[in-house]
Amino acid sequence: MPAPVPRQRAIPAAEGGQAPAATPNGGSAQDSSETRTPAPRAADPSEHTTDRAGTAPGGSGTAATPTALTLLLIEDDPGGSSIVPEPVDQSGRPIRVRTARNLTEAERLLTDDVHCILLDLALPAPGRAGDGGDELAVLKHVLELAPRHAVLALTGADDAERGAEAVRVGAQDYLVRDELDGRLLSRAIRYAVERKRSDSAERRLAEGRVRAQENRRLERGLLPTPLLDGSPLRFAARYRPGRSRALLGGDFYDVVRTPDGTVHAMIGDVCGHGPDEAALGVELRIAWRALTLAGLCGDQLLGTLQEVLEHERSDDEIFATLCAVDIAPDGRRAGLCLAGHPSPLLVRPGLPARLLPYDNNGPALGLLPGARWPRTQVELGGEWSLMLYTDGLIEGRVGDTGERLGQDGMVEMIRRQLSEGLRGEELLRTAVNEVRDLNGGELTDDVAVLLLDRAV
User: Fold this and answer.
1) Is the pLDDT of residue 43 over 50?
2) In the β-sheet with 251-257, what is the strand arrangement from edge to edge?
3) Distance of alpha carbon 24 from its chain centroid, rounded?
4) How far apart are CA 347 and CA 349, in angstroms?
5) Do strands 384-389 and 447-454 pair parallel, antiparallel, or not at all (unpaired)?
């Protein structure tokens, strides 16, 4: 049996330019009470414009026929059409007209294929508390009823001031009843529809910019602020999310100094690099900081962090790699715990940069319940630099060969950059930029790198 087709959310024709197919008798498929206008008069040549496909009305080409416009007239004359000339669209076809004698009937006829509303400001407003003597109460009610539709206000010859006020309140334009003719009305309808579409597009663009700014502020606030007060160590970091126009990815890092003088540093990577992974990375970073400040370290800390991951992840297949080091108060030794993560790079004066031992690497967090993560003691010496990084730095391609940079390629690259005198922020910035250049463009994975330096 075929799968059911899901219904799409209806978009008002005022924004989307769409209308339902006509019924066999020429009316709308959504409402059979539509008032039909007579056959169109000849279109004014000065009004001919190119259609959406770039073909002038009446010209050759295979362009699709533009959708006919629909007008909803709201006025209290039982005859309805007596005050409205025959409007036509830019192709000379009649604009369909529906007539409502009051707002209750208008609400029923206001279906998604309506493009424009023509409202008689002389229509009595519904009894609502607080309206008082507001002459535009009926217009405000219609604007609330149809916030995404174009609205034209209709006034008397001696009431142009109220028409101008209607535009200020929210109508796209106003028309004087005694001056109304078919050409003027047709042009006003088309203008109002296009202006509403333009205003709606501009509003959506502005809303999108505000949301983007809020997201940037939020992501910037979620990036870590290292707590190293009182420590002689210098800190530098570089972060590049894989998601386009994002500030935060699935990689995370942090550095804190506990009251006993120990400096704890961590870097991790949640599998994937979407917004859900970024949120989980923030949760793990905050949990790591709280557990570290509470006195946990090594295997006990990682075991608790795995419990946090298991509770917070959206899918049982999600895991995270992590590298954690705790540097003794004298700065000469460090403990290293690896959970499926690449080993840090150690740089010391007079010696080539090298990777720390990887033999005691434990599984990534979230893979094996009850797993253990051995802690390896590492001698750092008096003067050193320790670089922690995520696999986004080593998994980029190298030119057209298709080969990945890998850890060996990264080590050689860092050795060369150190020989050129690069240090700290400049070293990290150059390394990340070179990896991107070798890849032939932006990296698809998140990249995080942090550097701790101790000088004597």
Assistant:
1) no
2) 251-257, 263-270, 320-327, 333-339, 376-379
3) 43
4) 7
5) antiparallel
Over residues 181-204, the pLDDT tens digits come to 888 989 999 899 998 888 888 888
Nearest to 10 by CA among 18, 204, 23: 18
Inter-residue long-range contacts of 47-54, CB under 8 Å, 24+ positions, other chains counted: 47/90, 47/183, 47/186, 47/187, 48/90, 49/90, 51/91
Other CB atoms within a 10 A radius of the CB of residue 43 amount to 18
- Exposure pattern of 164-188 as b/e (b: 16+ CB <10 Å)? ebbeeebbbbbbebeebebbebbbb
Q: How confident is the model at residue 276 (pLDDT cuts 50, 70, 90)?
A: confident
Place of tokens 């990036």: 223
Per-residue DSSP letters for 205-238? HHHHHHHHHHHHHHHHHHS---B-TT---EEEEE
pLDDT in tens, 297-354: 999 999 999 999 999 998 999 999 999 999 999 999 999 999 999 999 999 999 999 9
In sequence order, the β-bridge partners of residue 450 are 237, 388
At 19, give phi and psi (nearest 5°): -145, 150
> Is 49 in contact with 90 (CB distance < 8 Å)?
yes
| Helix (H/G/I), strand (E/B), else coil: 25 | coil
Q: Which residues pair with 454 in a beta bridge?
A: 384
User: pLDDT at residue 370 above 80?
Assistant: yes
**What is the residue whose two structure tokens read 């991790």?**
268
Cα 366 to Cα 155: distance, rounded to the nearest angstrom:
70
**Per-chain mean pLDDT for the chain:** 82
Which of 1-10, 23-32, 314-323 has the highest mean predicted lDDT (pLDDT)?
314-323
Give the model's pLDDT for residue 127: 62
Determine the Cα–Cα distance for residues 359 and 346; give it in Å rounded to an integer.
16
Q: Do 251 and 448 touch, CB atoms closer than 8 A? A: yes
CA dist 119 and 191 (Å) reads: 16
